[in-house]
Amino acid sequence: MKKRLSAIFAAALLLAALLAGCLGREPEPSPTPPPTPDPHAGEVEVLDPAGGTMWVPEASSLTPFGRTATDFTVVDQIPYYAQTDLTMIRGIDVSDHQEDIDWQQVADYGIEFAIIRCGYRSYGEGELHEDARFRDNIQGALDAGLRVGVYFFSQAVNIVEAAEEALFTLDVIEGFDVALPVFFDWETIDVAPARTDGLSGPDMTACAVEFCRLIDAAGYEAGVYAYLNLAYYRYQLDALKDYTIWMGDPGTKPIFYYDHDYWQYSYTARIPGIGVDVDLDAMYLKDPHYVPPTATMTPAGGASAEPVG
Questions:
Q1: Is residue 28 part of a domain?
Q2: Residue 11 belongs to what H/E stretch?
Q3: What is the enclosing helix (H) or strand (E) of 88?
Q4: Would 301 be classed as within a structural domain?
Q5: What is the DSSP letter of 29?
Q6: Which domain, by its residues, includes 206?
Q7: Is 48 within the bounds of a domain?
Q8: Beta 278-285 vs 87-94: how paired, if at all?
Q9: How, if at all, do strands 113-121 and 53-57 pair?
Q10: What residues pair up with 264 in beta bridges, in sequence order?
């Protein structure tokens, strides 16, 4: 019996010692919960055409445009840049869809440059064509004193076709004073089945880079035209960082997130010298000493330069 009581007493002492030790120690910290994953990792928040915002893949090698809606004003429904770090030079882009153009009237209205379609690839058979009015348009624009760039409407499905388009373009523009960029203009076709349906973003980007590489090698400034959906969701923008960007973004202020040199701000304008709708463009000129011509963009003779918002 004594042995049993001694064992019980010893066990009690041991339990008391253990309890005393436990009470004297700091409680064990709770485990740190894992960090909540960022749902927008690798993305950037940008404005959308409806006035809200959306998240799109980030192009880390590009510089944000850095100018907000308050930097732009609207006079007679025409956007103007209100700050002094750059000047908006007015231009148009045309093809044979604009029919006969009185280029002197265009120049007198205040247009200073034109981006002219030199050719295109058909979205059905994939044949290459020179624009039917290219030579008349470029010569007329140059004779009226406008600076000129060109674009090729691409439907390339691989880099071989993109190279073919670049060489075709270089042949067509030879002998003309093309001082502004030569643009690659690849667009999706929505009105009918097209040979480009289903072309991936990486393949489309590779076509743009190949076209620009050959244009650049020939001594011209190479550029890429895009609109918001194409830029954000199809093009791999980091691959285009070395080329001039012309952004189709209609409205009274540009909302494209990244820096760009040309802004197409209307698809359906009417101006003197052109009897049908025409696209209006602006070139951002980073030259504080530039003096614009005396002509203004005020609508004249019933013409309207109203942009589409």
A1: no
A2: helix 2-24
A3: strand 87-94
A4: no
A5: P
A6: 63-285
A7: no
A8: antiparallel
A9: unpaired
A10: 248, 281
Residue 56 pairs in a beta bridge with: 44
Beta partners for residue 73, in sequence order: 80
Residue pair 122/168 in contact by the 8 Å Cβ criterion = no
Per-residue pLDDT tens over the stretch 114-170: 999 999 999 999 999 999 999 999 999 999 999 999 999 999 999 999 999 999 999
Q: How many CA atoms lie within 13 A of 165 on its CB side?
A: 33
Higher pLDDT, 261 or 20: 261
**CB under 8 Å, gap of 24 or more: what pairs does 29-37 form?**
none
The label of the residue with tokens 């880079």 reads: 209
Q: 235 φ, ψ to 5°?
A: -70, 145
Two tokens at 241?
Answer: 């960082």
Residues 42-75: b if buried by 16+ CB within 10 A, e if exposed: eebebbeeeeeeeebebbeebeebebeeebbeee
Residue with tokens 């308050």: 70
230: nearest Cα among 191, 189, 274: 189
Q: Which of 278, 281, 279, 267 is nearest to 309 (CA)?
A: 267
pLDDT tens-digit series, residues 7-46? 555 555 555 555 555 545 566 677 788 888 888 899 999 9
Distance CA 182, CA 40 (A): 35
Indicate whether 95 belongs to any domain: yes
Pairing of strands 43-47, 53-57: antiparallel
Measured distance CA(32)–CA(34) in Å, rounded: 6
The answer to whether the beta carbons of residues 101 and 274 sit under 8 Å apart is: yes
Locate 46 and state its tokens.
């940008």
Q: Please, how many CA atoms are within 13 Å of residue 63, restricted to the half-sphere of its CB?
A: 10
* Helix extents (H) in 98-158: 103-109, 134-143
CATH of the domain at 72: 3.20.20.80
